[in-house]
Amino acid sequence: MLENDKVRIWHITLAPGETQPLHHHGLAYVVVAVQGAKNVIHTAAGERIDVEEKTGAVVFREPGQTHMLTNAGDTVYIGRIIELKTGFDRA
Predict the structure, then answer these.
(1) Three-class secondary structure assignment of 31-89
(2) Which strands, in side-by-side order, build the sheet including 66-71?
(3) What residues does 3 pair with on adjacent strands?
């Protein structure tokens, strides 16, 4: 959606049952749930994290995680990911 020397902003949409491929977050980032859903995070280390992202919720995440995100609910998930390019070390 937007990229400059300070941030990169992504838009994601996941239909019920849809999964993002395995990916790595090398930058600290903020997640904004534009339309919330019940999601499951599967980490590269084999951990399962059940997350209910409510519409309007905002979460900060440290860099370094490698995971897949699956919409485990029955509503479409819409989110914005704001990666912070400055002020944090890359993992």
Answers:
(1) EEEEECEEEEEEECCCCEEEEEECCCCEEEECCCCEEEEEECCCCCEEEEEEEECCCCC
(2) 23-24, 66-71, 37-43, 48-53
(3) 8
Cβ atoms within 10 Å, residue 50: 9
Residue 72 identity (one-letter amino acid): A
Do the Cβ atoms of 21 and 66 come closer than 8 Å? no
- Asked whether the whole model's pTM tops 0.90, one would answer no
Look up tokens 């995100």; give the residue: 69
Torsion sign, CA atoms 4, 9, 11, 14: positive
DSSP state, residue 16: T
At 14-71, the pLDDT tens digits run 999 999 999 999 999 999 999 999 999 999 999 999 999 999 999 999 999 999 999 9
